[in-house]
Design a protein that fits this description.
Elements (H helix, E strand, L loop, with lengths): L5 E4 L1 H17 L3 H20 L6 E2 L10 E6 L2 E8 L4 E9 L2 H11 L1
Parallel strand pairs: 1-5
Antiparallel strand pairs: 2-3, 3-4, 4-5
Helix pairs in contact: 1-2
């Protein structure tokens, strides 16, 4: 498949994904849930690379709204990304559990 954009994970997003998978697989002993999340996240990232503007804009209370962040749900998690149009890159900023507390944590990280 020919992707229009390349994808880059921030160090934080990479660590968050690893931590989520570790929790599912090692703490909960649920290998199937870990696999499902992994494959679904890869599927969503492929869609983002083809249609980056298809997902809604994320507007946090404390973030700089001059930078447009977008969000997409992957099971109980939310992938937050930004688009660098001039470089044809998608930057995965964060992967968080879909609770308001997690949103607040993300908002504080990027403000």
């Amino acid at each position: 498949m020919d992707f229009k954009y390349s994808v880059i994970f921030t160090d934080a997003a990479h660590e968050e994904l690893e931590s989520i998978l570790d929790y599912l697989i090692n703490t909960l002993c649920n290998l199937e849930a870990g696999k499902n999340l992994w494959f679904k996240s890869q599927e969503i990232i492929e869609k983002i690379c083809i249609f980056p503007y298809a997902f809604p804009v994320y507007r946090g209370r404390f973030i700089n709204n001059r930078i447009e962040y977008r969000k997409v749900n992957v099971h109980n998690y939310i992938v937050i990304y930004k688009i660098l149009e001039d470089k044809k890159e998608i930057i995965i900023m964060s992967i968080i559990f879909g609770t308001s507390l997690s949103y607040e944590m993300f908002n504080k990280k990027i403000s």
